[in-house]
Amino acid sequence: MKKPYVHGIHHITAFSGDINQNLEFYTNVLGLRLVKKSVNQDAPDVYHLFFADAHGNPGTDLTFFPFPNVSKMRDGYGLVSETGFAIPASSYSFWLSRLEEYRVDDLSEHTRFDQRVITFSDPHGLKLSFTAIKEEKDVAIWDRSSVPAEHQLRGFHTVRLKLQTAEPTLALLTEIMGFRVLDSDGLWTRLESGDGGSGTFVEVAEFPDEPQGRWGLGGVHHVAWRVKDVETELALRKRIAEVGLQPSPKIDRFWFESVYFQEPNGTVFELATDGPGFDRDEDMDKLGETLILPPWLEGNRKEIEKALPKITVKLP
User: What is residue 296's DSSP assignment?
Assistant: First the structure.
């Protein structure tokens, strides 16, 4: 059997505020495709929106629970502190100009691990970064995007975790989940998984004097890591349970299978299978156009639709 290792970032799920501001920013400003319009399966009066490349491929998918009245997140350890996308190296100036044009918050430029990086915040405070990469990545270009094909986002690059104590999390990542330490840059240590490269990275740093973070507006709920199939997922779940981290049972999310647990500093991790995929219940050319409910919620469609806020944004 294959070793039960993860092989990159699958998706990242965050909290947003007003749903229309969220839709406007991620589709019309960042040029992502809304590939699934569904509900939070644990709280179906709340939307769950999935933004990704044209096909909703694993490794490209940033998802949101829009809570218009949720309190602001509290920064600190035990949270994802930044969600990082990749952009082509030739697109750096395009994106810097575009983000300036749309007057995004907290816009700044950096060099990290010898790469050029733009950091900024979305309209609800979520910390984002764009890293310019030279290598090609296998993402599906969307021909209806507001962003020209040559400049479209190339999926995730990395995710940053604030830790109180790095050692137990590093042990989990390297000894159980199959990550490898690559390099350090100031406070931050970069690790890679699977075949390595952009989209497989996690970066961790210790912040022992900060309080524990708290979920809320502009914060990340969890980061999901890719596993190839259920067999790999369950083998890895077993190893995680053996070290006392109390993973959830396998949960059917219809488009993928999930297992959840908290890493030692408190960040919520998910293991998510690469399939079946978002075209399981919609044609690929119609993704995101209608409200999709998993089969076990379909009987409550009328009540669910009545409770959801109205979407007014015109999508590409």
Answer: G
